[in-house]
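User: For a benchmark we're assembling, each entry needs the component sequences followed by a predicted structure for the full assembly. Here are entry 17's components. Please fill in the structure.
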Amino acid sequence: MIIRYLALILICQLVGETVQVATDIPVPGPVIGMTILFTGLLIKRGLPEGLNETAGGLLRHLALLFVPAGVGVMLHVPRLADEWWPVFLAIVPGTLFAIAITALVMERLGRSTLRDEDKV
Amino acid sequence: MNPPDLAQIWVYLAQKPLTGLTLTLCAYVVGDWLYEKSGRNPLLNPVPIAIILIAGLLWTTGIPYKDYFEGAQFVHFLLGPATVALAVPLYQQLETLKESGPALLIGILVGSGTAAGCAYGFAYLGGASVQTLLSIAPKSVTAPIAMGISEQLGGLPSLTAVFVILTGITGAVLGPLVLNLTRIKDWRARGLAMGVAAHGLGTSRAFQVNAVAGAFAGLAMGLNGLATAILIPLIFAVLF
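Assistant: Structure for entry 17:
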């Protein structure tokens, strides 16, 4: 984790949040920040090793970052108990159906551009 | 001097941010340990294990979620910088992304519509209340965008956050099984589907398996957020 690049990532997020508030577009600040950093890399035409390392450090444990919001499930236990059937239908079969359809469409349309190294 | 009163120490500690933060990391370490111990069995994903451990502990000790979050917010906060950091793997896979351009965009749009449509439609068929319906529609989108959409529609943002995470866990745990059953042999398609339907948790899982799948998942998560944020409010404005 290199402080200079951590600062760069935070600056991108800060600019993104500012743009979001100023323009009131429905895209969250961090997603705008990601676009800014990506554009910067395109202009610079190269990835500094320190940035690669810092970003890797943040992304390696991405799943952990969802835990605090997930514990919020305890606030909604009564509603989930009342409506467990529709919630289950939407979340389990709903999500898995969306995964299957998306993958099938992408695989079919992407057949002509598939490289050997991207095959499973 | 009187001996220290354990109950008072407990009350003191429960209000400290350090407790919530330590609890979050320890619960995740336990989850991760079980996951490794099981030979990385996808059914033993560390996230649901950590959530169940923490929620169970808070519930038995009567500590309010609000007090826990005082400390856990330091972990929660990192979601923002981590989202920005996704620009790096995207840049590394630039050539692959460019080559699959049109397929990628159509795939994301179809996936975006299917994910939101299935969420709303299945919940409606199951007899969900209006508030639940409005809160569940954006469940496949990354949490901050989904909460914004939910608020705009008149749902409950905090309920949406829970649906988003349950969706992410479902995708991360069962998604690869579905992709094996449907015999998807293209890492790009597997990643894209995980990112569209199961946002950051799907992306995290995709990165664990394959770098190309991870980059496609990250891009799909971002573009799906964008597409859903624009399309859902429009569709609701026209239909209702």
